Structures are given as structure tokens and as C-alpha cells.
């Protein structure tokens, strides 16, 4: 059992209450001294967090959408922006409905009939249809979005709200990214067959769609990702017990751990290299987090932990793990070193770790209602808010 002593500096939010201003404005926002952090020319660490009233139980969130709440952005620990959250402001408290891109805060929200996207608290796009936004690329005044329908299957790829590609069935693999300057994403569609529907897999590259993973022995494709102009994929195939990674024109078998089968597998990219991360399960339903850095080389972690966030920097591999038993301690894996999380803290989602200036930054939230903190290579800074950290990113 680890025991961690925490000595933490407190970073004050120092932000006025926007709701105290007269009237209600859907585009109301407060900006602070951190707004110009990106002008320094160096790497900046951005932290997003939700701030609630001190006496509100944000874990249960029984008044979601109506409770007084703000989405706060910090730049290198300095308050940058505070956006009011709630249905009247068309900003969601769901942690996966906002993201930092090139130093700007983008939020998405679904009304009863529309999708609303804002940048830095100001309405940027509003278009018919309720979508879950799973990817955004900002290119100057042009915004590309990839969204899943909230009413069932299907997805839509848009440019400034206008439809570029739409499918009424199927799903994407959830990422919109650039590879060699081209916009890419992958998707699957059901195709009618004699024995019922089967899945076909496709890749979109700047408007060109090609079928991929076209092999008779492919049973299931776990993920698809374009890397250095090559469409790579992870799949389970007939005749090979282990899942395989197709890369450099070859199938590479991934080492599994005895008695375990994949539950999830996804491709991640870091500093020009591809990796695979996943969760494995066994007959007794125990879970193991695993990471494959190259063929024949893998990392696995104790089934007492559940992987929460990861990030890659240079040759460094970094993970955070929440304890399965919340009365225990979480773990931080820092490029080979296993370190304890401060007692009572956890990571609230997959986007809470990043490396800035060679320092690993992790957003830790206190489950018993205390202040969240930023862990920086063992040093900690408390954020003077009542809530949790939703994301940590670097620009």
C-alpha cells in the first residue's frame, strides 16, 4: 500500500462570476490574463475544468443543465477563460463535449433540433440535426466536423456546417485528423449478405474514399488510422490467435497474455510512431491494461488498475491508472517508473495527461469534493475551484 504526502501550491481561479452580470447572454464569457499565453512561442499547457458551487455534489450531478456551473480554462496555471455552462447558455457539462485546439476552446451542444458549436464561448456554427461531435479540425476560419447522429446510426462530415459526406448507417472510428496535410477518418458500413449484414471498412482522405482491410480472413477490425500516407489497421483474423497490426505492408501479431482476450484495441500516434493500447479481459472478468510499442514488445499492468489517460512524448510512454477499488491508490506510469497518485485522487477521463516542456502534466480530481490538482513530475498545484479537471493538452 502506497502512502503519498501531498504538498501543493494553490492556483487561484481569480475569475468574476459571469452570472452576476445583468441579463442573460448565451455568448457571455470572461477572459483573464492567461489569454495571451500562446503568444510566448513556447509550449503551453492548457487545463479545462468544471467549477460548481461548493455545496454541490458534482459526481451525482442531479441538477445537470440547470445548476450554476462554469467551464474554466487555465493556461500554464493562469486563468484564461470562464464560460457559463447550462442549457440556457448552450454549453454542456459533459467532459467530451469540449476540446482545446490551437489555444482556443471549442464546445458543442445539442438543442432539441440543432447542433451548436462555439469558439471561446461565442457561437460559431448552428445547423439542423442533433450530432455527437467526435472530431474537429480548425483551419483558419474553416471548421471541419465529424459527428454521429444522436437518433441512431449514421454520421456526417461537414465543412463550416455544410455536408461533405453523410451516411445514414454505419459508424466512424471516432477520429478526425490530418496525415501529411490531408484530412482523414475511417468508418464502417453494413452491407447486406446471404447470411445477414456484414461490415465493410473504408477510409476517407481529402474526399477520396477507399475500402480497406479487404481480406477474407478478417473477422473484426478494431481500429483504422492513416499514418505517413499508409492506412494502418488493427484486426482479429482467422488462423491467428493474437490480434494483428497491419503496418508497413505487413501483418504483425501482437503478444497477448495467457487467458486474456481483447475487449478494446486502438491505435495511438506519438512523435511519428504508431502504438496500440487496449484493455484485455479473462473468463473471471478481470481486466488488464496493455500497450504494444512494437512487434513482440508489450507492457501490461496489474488488474487492480484501470487505464484512464495516456500520452506519448519522444520515446516516453506515460499512463495514468485509477484503482478498481476506489479506497485504494491510483498509479502514474512515467516512462518506466511506477508512482502513486495522491490519496483520494483519480483521473476523470482519457484526455487528462500531456507533456509540456519535458514535464508530465496530469489532471487529478478529488472524489470526496476537494480541490482538483495538476501533478507535474511529482510536484502538485491545487486549482481553486470546486469540481473536476476534464482535459489537459499542450500547444
Molecular structure report:
- The chain has 395 residues and is mainly beta.
- 0% of the residues lie in helices and 57% in strands.
- It contains no helices and 36 strands.
- It has strands spanning 8-12, 30-31, 45-51, 69-75, 78-85, 98-101, 104-110, 114-119, 122-128, 131-139, 142-149, 155-159, 162-167, 171-172, 177-179, 182-191, 198-205, 208-212, 218-227, 230-237, 244-247, 250-253, 260-270, 273-282, 287-294, 297-301, 305-313, 316-323, 331-334, 337-340, 345-346, 353-356, 359-366, 373-376, 379-384, 387-394.
- The strands form eight sheets. Strands 1, 31, 32, 33, 34 and 35 form a six-stranded mixed beta sheet that branches. Strands 2-5-4-3-36 form a five-stranded antiparallel beta sheet, with no helix packed on it.
- It starts with 7 loop residues before the first strand and ends with a strand.
- The model is unreliable at 1-9 and 18-23 (pLDDT under 50).
Shape: globular
Euclidean distance between termini CA atoms = 36 Å
Instruction: Predict the CATH topology.
Output: Methylamine Dehydrogenase, Chain H
Measured on Cα atoms, how large is the radius of gyration?
22 Å
Would you state the CATH class?
Mainly Beta
Helix-strand category: mainly beta
Sheet bearing the most strands, described? 6 strands, mixed
Residue stretches low in confidence (pLDDT < 50, at least 5 long) are 1-9, 18-23
Q: Indicate the proportion of strand residues.
A: over 45%
Instruction: Tell me which CATH architecture applies here.
Output: 7 Propeller
User: How many helices in DSSP terms?
Assistant: 0
Overall residue-averaged pLDDT value: 88
Helix content: under 10%
Question: How many structurally independent domains?
Answer: 1
Number of strands: 36
Amino acid at each position: 500500500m502506497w502512502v503519498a504526502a501531498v504538498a501543493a501550491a494553490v492556483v487561484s481561479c481569480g475569475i468574476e462570476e459571469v452570472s452576476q452580470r445583468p441579463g442573460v447572454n448565451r455568448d457571455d464569457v470572461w477572459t483573464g490574463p492567461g489569454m495571451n499565453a500562446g503568444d510566448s512561442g513556447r509550449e503551453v499547457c492548457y487545463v479545462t475544468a468544471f467549477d460548481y458551487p461548493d455545496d454541490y455534489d458534482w459526481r451525482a450531478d442531479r441538477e445537470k443543465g440547470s445548476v450554476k456551473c462554469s467551464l474554466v480554462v487555465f493556461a500554464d496555471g493562469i486563468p484564461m477563460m470562464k464560460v457559463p455552462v447550462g442549457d440556457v447558455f448552450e454549453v454542456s457539462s459533459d467532459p467530451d463535449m469540449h476540446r482545446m485546439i490551437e489555444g482556443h476552446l471549442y464546445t458543442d451542444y445539442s438543442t432539441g433540433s440543432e447542433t451548436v458549436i462555439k469558439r471561446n464561448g461565442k457561437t460559431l456554427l448552428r445547423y439542423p440535426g442533433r450530432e455527437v461531435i467526435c472530431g474537429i479540425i480548425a483551419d483558419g476560419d474553416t471548421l471541419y466536423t465529424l459527428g454521429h447522429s444522436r437518433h441512431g446510426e449514421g454520421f456526417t462530415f461537414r465543412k463550416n456546417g455544410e455536408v461533405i459526406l453523410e451516411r445514414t448507417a454505419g459508424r466512424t472510428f471516432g477520429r478526425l485528423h490530418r496525415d501529411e496535410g490531408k484530412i482523414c477518418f475511417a468508418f464502417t458500413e453494413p452491407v447486406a449478405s446471404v447470411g445477414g449484414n456484414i461490415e465493410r471498412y473504408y477510409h476517407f482522405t481529402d474526399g477520396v474514399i477507399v475500402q480497406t482491410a479487404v481480406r477474407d480472413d478478417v473477422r473484426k477490425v478494431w481500429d483504422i488510422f492513416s499514418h505517413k500516407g499508409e492506412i494502418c489497421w488493427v484486426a482479429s483474423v482467422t488462423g491467428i490467435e493474437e490480434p494483428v497490426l497491419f503496418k508497413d505492408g505487413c501483418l504483425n501479431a501482437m503478444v497477448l497474455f495467457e487467458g486474456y482476450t481483447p475487449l478494446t484495441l486502438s491505435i495511438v500516434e506519438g512523435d511519428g510512431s504508431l502504438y496500440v493500447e487496449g484493455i484485455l479481459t479473462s473468463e473471471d472478468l478481470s481486466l488488464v491494461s496493455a500497450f504494444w510499442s512494437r512487434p513482440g514488445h508489450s507492457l501490461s499492468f496489474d488488474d487492480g488498475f484501470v487505464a484512464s489517460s495516456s500520452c506519448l512524448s519522444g520515446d516516453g510512454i506515460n499512463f495514468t491508472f485509477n484503482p478498481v477499488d476506489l479506497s485504494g491508490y491510483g498509479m502514474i506510469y512515467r516512462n518506466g517508473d511506477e508512482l502513486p497518485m495522491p490519496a483520494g485522487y483519480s483521473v476523470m477521463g482519457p484526455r487528462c495527461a500531456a507533456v509540456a516542456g519535458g514535464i508530465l502534466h496530469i489532471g487529478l480530481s478529488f472524489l470526496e469534493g476537494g480541490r482538483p490538482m495538476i501533478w507535474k513530475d511529482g510536484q502538485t498545484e491545487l486549482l481553486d475551484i470546486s469540481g473536476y479537471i476534464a482535459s489537459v493538452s499542450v500547444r
